[in-house]
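Render this sequence as a predicted structure.
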Amino acid sequence: MANECLGKPIYLDYNASTPIDSAVAEAMRPLLATAYGNPSSGHWAGAPARAVLDQARLSVATLLGCTPSEIVFTSGGSEANNLALKGMYFRRADRSPHLITSRTEHPAILAPCRFLERLGATVTYLPVDGHGLVDPDDVRRAVTHETILISVMHANNETGTVQPIAEIGKIAAAHGIPLHTDAAQSVGKITTKVDELGVDLLSVAGHKMYAPKGIGALFVRRGLAVEPLIHGAGHEGARRAGTESAMLAAALGKACELARIGPEIEPIRTLRDAFWSRLRSAFGDRVVLNGHPERRLPNTLNVSFRGERGADLLSKMPDVAASTGSACHTGAASVSPVLEAMSVDREIAAGAIRFSLGRGTTRDEIEAVVEHLRRLIS
């Protein structure tokens, strides 16, 4: 069965981006010709667009367990992260603001933090352990009287390690500090109810959950003010100016309706675990798991092959779409900053490949990849 898949494209990079679900595409299609009015207009042409926007906002809010008014539509996860960090900073820029984050965050968090440092902010970058976990006690020790925001991602995009956000949320609440989490990778894969997590801001990326690129959302807890990144008219509750796209909002709303965590994700988890078992059977101790063995996204498998370079292996499997945690430049391997922060041995880190599964992944494809790797490595 495995040989039948060899030579055919195999997509195992769902953490990078997902295909648009057929139901999502169907929800978008009629809006190419209808609901073309401005949602802010009070006449007959604006009303359908406003209705679409309202329904989409309700669908996102239902998945996150919040009210529709707490959802701000954005252009994606990166904008949502920037709005959370910069929006809080510019509201408190009069008091030498201090922010807390982790060393394994996505660049959409780390880059804004470095930008805010240039403006005068102080940022504490928390360490992680060998599994990539933040210690909540480190968060507690990092808090100062100047701390205005704690931002720790819900699940890591490379290793899938899920952070103890609920524990961190209790610490943040005890000190009266807002907590933000980048949930771009976790929404639709594990539970992301904002009250259970104890977060005040949460970022969503549409193209990580079978919606198109160009749409995302930021949950902003009622009563929390953020300075807009884009100033203009009072769209999105005066938190993000710009006429909303009813079509893209509808796409994200439909994707959230489809994100039924239990029945949707368990077959993927089972297939991911079977993949790991097959790799262990084929390579024994030559294959190493990166990330937490249990507190991990159900679709993510980041592994290193001892004595190999992940980039070299992927270059010899052009039909397999996956990601590597290292980049080879002029014969030298530059390891992933995430694995480096986890203190993974550089030789092992250089051999890392992230396989991320999704709704379209089949067992035959997994078998084909294992067989291909067996031939390459042997």
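Summary. The chain has two domains: 2-19+261-377, 22-258. The chain has 15 helices and 15 strands.
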